[in-house]
Amino acid sequence: MHYNFNKDLQDGQAAEREVAQRLIARLNLAEDDIEHSSSKGYDLKIISKGWTFEVKNDLMAERTGNVAVEFESRGKPTALSATTAEFWVYKFAGSFFAFKTETLKRKLFEEKQFFREVVGGDAGSNTKMFLVKVSDFKSWGKEI
Hints:
This protein has helices at residues 5-27, 61-64, 101-110, 134-139, and strands at residues 34-36, 44-46, 51-57, 66-73, 76-77, 87-92, 95-100, 116-120, 127-133, 142-143. The chain is of the alpha+beta class. The protein has a single domain (5-143), classed as Trna Endonuclease, Chain: A, domain 1 (3-Layer(aba) Sandwich), CATH 3.40.1350.
């Protein structure tokens, strides 16, 4: 499969909109209580609660049985290493799972509970990711 940043960006933005709608419905929020962010720190914010969310859409998890969690690209901290979000929401295999960011960081960076570390992304990015078995990953969070 050839990596396509622009397509992945569009898929990610669609997942953000889906997560926003799920949060609105689940928490009985007004539509204008969700802020979409263009910052690198987080993707969504529930204004009334101050909660911030990073949203990821893993298109390969269903096929591979692993969730990929990025932490470095081009030699710099990214994604899990760089986020300021309090929560992460992952979409994979048509499901959405929410996690406390601190839980993901502890499980991956401290406890090393990943299947393996891989390098991928666009040419020259040297993007580093942890692969976690879907069943293990699900057990760390809550389906929303």
